[in-house]
What we know:
- The protein has 504 residues and is mostly helical.
- Helix 4 crosses helix 7 and helix 9 packs antiparallel against helix 10.
- The mean pLDDT is 88.
Amino acid sequence: MSTLFSFYLPDLISQYWPTIESWFVFDPKHPLLFNSALFLGIFAVFYTIYVSLKNAKHETFRNIYVILFSLFFYYKAGGNYYILILVCALVTDFLARIMYKEENQRKRKLWLALIIIGNLAMLSYYKYTGFLVENINAIFNGDISFGNIALPIGISFFVFEAISYAVDLYRREMQPAKSTLDFCFYIAFFPKLVAGPIIRAKDFLPQMHKKLQLTKQEAGAAIFLIVIGLIKKAVISDYISTNFVDRIFDSPLSYTSFENLMAVYGYTLQIFCDFSGYSDMAIGLSLLMGFKIPPNFLTPYKSQSITEFWRRWHISLSSWLRDYLYISMGGNRKGKVRTYFNLFMTMLIGGLWHGASWKFVVWGGLHGILLAIERYIKQWVPLSSDKFFPRLFRILITFHLVAFCWIFFRAKDFGMASDVISKIGDLNFDLNAWATVISSYRNVFIMIAIGYIMHFLPEKFVDRVRNGFIALPLVGKAVIMGFSFWLVYATMSSGPQPFIYFQF
């Protein structure tokens, strides 16, 4: 029997080795994503070991285990750039400790400047070198080239976290991490590593040394977030993207005015479901591991103003820009004109953070202008109301302003953005033609309708659904999860699609 087993074992290994090897080797065509079956399997194995290390005596080993898994996750998602995470964590931690102990204020500022410049230099090299060279060549008719510099996924997120940690230490708002290992854990923590949320060290580090306890309510809430996030991303966002939005934005002049308008509405929903879907899954996974992260999106299209929109949209980023950029530039403390300028520059830089392209700068600049205008007119006109019709009017105006700005965010270039805008400008009221388009893309429009209905559901109703899910027995939760995975599979037209924020 043993001889027979030894005879067939090499054949079995050789037969399945390519599949097994693919689990551990980075494939740029198939990066590891939260919305993939491979991640589900890998996380199940990881989590089984993780919960077995919940005792305090295992804390150090558990932290090392999470760091190593996080680096492996980053490697599977983005290649060998995991070394940048270690460099960022180790250098920032080392310099930040020196800065914190320093009593001389001038020297403290120099250490802080060194940390910020060092991190921004790393970010700028990978993210903005090509953009800078391209513009220099265009201005001076040059041919400078640094080759093809690949952008490491999520670099903007862990760089911003490192900078916020240093600034908070400089402001004496927190104490340094208890150890370098703790700080590496914070920077590398895989649920938020490649697409946020941007978590403050002063909020995250204290949770590391609490006993790992997960109540039934917390476990149910975590699973609910993961399921909702998966549906948002893999069902709604990916479906309307691959079956409608991408086609229109790739060639807007080939489609009707109504199709272009619907593509803008579709992308407005797609980008929300993509961004917030990832955040929901990241927050849910973190909660399963015993870490509480606040919501990153709060139904932003219910906003009655652009100001409110940025309080609800990508909250971790908007609050980071406010606390570490807007306030550092003077905020609203240096007069009205300076306040307007600070708002505009904050959003302009925020736009550039999103991508090394002038279209992102324009997108950010438009939001900066709108925020400045709102701040000016709110002296005479209220920006919110509890009455139904004024509230509805403000929501519709804000929604369409945001949707207009998204055109520049999504279009490949200004030419494409101009084509979309010009086609929409030629829109005629023709119900028969509109009905024909809707009929042709029936499933897409059904998905868009479902997505917007989910977004505008009353919060009390959503809370009841969440509490109902939490109250279900384990079998009930398993059935809903199984149905969700089937739904993902049924609506998938190709393999799992990367998250939009991976490029940032």
